[in-house]
Amino acid sequence: MGLREGSTIPGMMRQAAVPLLTGLVYFWLALVTINATQSYAGIAPIWPANALVLAVVLLRPRPQAWAIIAFGMLGNAVAVLATGGGLPEAFLYPAINLAELAIAMLGLKSRDGKRRVLSEPRAVVRVLFWAGLLAPAASASLGALTTWHLFAHPVGSALLRWYLSDALGLLIFTPFFIALLSGEAFRRVRAMGWWQRAEFAGLLALVAVVTWAVFFVARNPLLFLITMPMMLVTFRAGWLGTKLALAIVAIVVGVATMTGNGPIALLVHGADMQTYGVQLYVAALLLIQMPVAATLTARQDVVDKLRESEQALRMLAARSPILLLSFDLQGICERVVGTNSILLDRDAADLVGSSFAEISAEGQFELRCAHNAALEDISQSHAAEFRTVHDNDAWFEAVFRVHFDETERCLGTIATIHDVTQRKNQELSLSRTASTDSLTGLLNRAGFRARLDQALINAASGALSIAVIDVDRFKLINDNSGHQVGDIVLREIARRISGQVRASDAVGRLGGDEFVILLATPNWDTVQEICGRIVAAVGAEPIALPSGGTLRTAISCGVARYRQDLKIDEFIHEADVALYEAKRNGRNRVVAA
Known about the structure:
With 593 residues, the protein is of the alpha+beta class. The protein has 21 helices and twelve strands. Strands 2-1-5-4-3 form a five-stranded antiparallel beta sheet, sandwiched between helices. It has a five-stranded mixed beta sheet with strand order 7-8-6-11-12, with helices on both faces. Strands 9-10 form a two-stranded antiparallel ribbon. Strand 4 and strand 5 form a beta hairpin.
C-alpha cells in the first residue's frame, strides 16, 4: 500500500514524533509529581501532566488528537509502574485521565479555541465549564470510586482532592503550555523593546521572590501579599504574564507546603487539610486574575482588530480628514488610505514608496522619531507634530502605532496624519495671551523675559540694548485723577512708545508705570536716538481724557548696552541705574549707562 498523495516519510515521522514526545514529557511530569507527593501522604495538590496533553491536542490538527492522548496515557501508565504502582492502578488511572482529556478536548477543540484559551470573556466561560468543571468532575468521580475500591480511601475526600488537583492543573498549566509550545511567549518577548523585556522579567521575578518570601521566610501568614505583584503582572504584562506568574505561584506554594514550609503548613494540620488549603488558595488567585486578564486581553484584541482592519480604516478615513499611512520597519511607506490631499496635495501613488524625508522634508526628524518609538514601545501610540512652512504653512500631527500580522510578527507601523493648524493657532493665541499685558497689549514681564532669554542665546557684545522707562510722577496722576485716568495714560504711552520702535525690537510693561524695550541693533547712536524720540513723543502732545480735558505727561529713560560677561539681571540692573540717574537729573530725559 503506497503513501497518500502529498505525504512524505519525513513528514510522517514528524507527525509521529509529536505523540511520542508528548508521552515522554507526560511520563516525566507524572513521575516527578508522584515522587514528590508520595512522601506527602501520596496527595498531589495540583496535577499538571494532563494540561500538557490538552495543550498539545488544542494546538495540533484533530486527526492527531487521539494518538497524542494515547501516548500521554501510556506515559501515565509507565510512571505509575515506575513509582511502585500495580497493574490495576497502571490501567485504571490512565483510563480515567483519558476520559478527562477526551471531555476537555471535545469541549475546547473549536475553531477559535486553539490559541486563545482563557483570553476572551466567552472563552473564559467555556474553559471554566469544560476544563474547570465537567472534565475534572467526571474524572474525580471515577478516580474516587477507583481509589475506594483499590485502597479503601473515603470517597468524599478522594473526590474533592482529585477534582481540585485536576481542575487547577488544567486551568493553570494548559494556558502556560500553550504559550510555550505555540511560540506565543517567545514571539511576544521578541517583539518587546529591551526595557519592556526587562520589566516583564522583573515582574515575574517579583512574583517569584514575594511568593518565596511568604512561604519560606515570613514567620507570619502574609498570603495577601502575593495578590499585589500578581495584579501588577496582570495589568502590565497582560495574559501572557498572568499565565507564567500563576504557574510560578502554584509550583512554589505546592513545593513549600509539601516540605512543611509556609503559612498553609503552619496554620493547617494534616496532609489532607494542607492539600485543600493549597488548592483553595491557588484557585482563589486563579479566579481573581483570570477574568481581569481575559477582559484586558479582549479589549486589546478589539482595538487591534479595528486598527488592522482594512475596512475599518477606509470607513474612518472616508468620514474624517485623516490620512492613514502604513510603514515598514525601515520607515518606507507601503500603503496609503484616506484623504491624501491633506498632505501637500499629492496623490496616494506618489506617497507609496516614499521615505519620511520625501513625505515631509521639514517634519522628517519628528516622523522618524515617532516611528522608532512605536517600534521600541509597542504598548502605546507615539505622536509627532510638524509644520510645513514652505508649501502651505500648516501644522500636522502624526500618531504612530506598531503593526502586527496574524502570527504576531511585527510588520512596521501605522500612522494617522491630520491637520491640526486650527488647534495650534489656538494654542499660540493662548500662549500670546499668557505673555501679553492685558491693559496695554505689550509683552508682560514673563513674555518680555522669555523674549530676552531667547535673544541673548547667541548675542554678541554690543548687539543688544535695554531701555527701562518710568512715567514721571505717575502716582500724582492716580491720586489726583483716579486709576481710570491712570490706565488711559498708560495705554497712550504704550502706543506712543510702540510707534517709535522697529519691528525687530520688543516692548514690554513690567508692571505699574514701568516699561522696558529690547533694542536689537549694534549701533549705540541709533539706540540713543530711538530712546530720545520716545521721550520726545510722550511729552510732545497732551493726552486727551474722556472728560474732555487733557493731561501732559513725561517719561524718564535709562538705557544700557549688553556685554557678554553680563548676566540677565545685571543687564537689566544697569539700565535701572541709568533710569534712576535720569530721575535725579530732572526727569523727562534719557541717560545711557
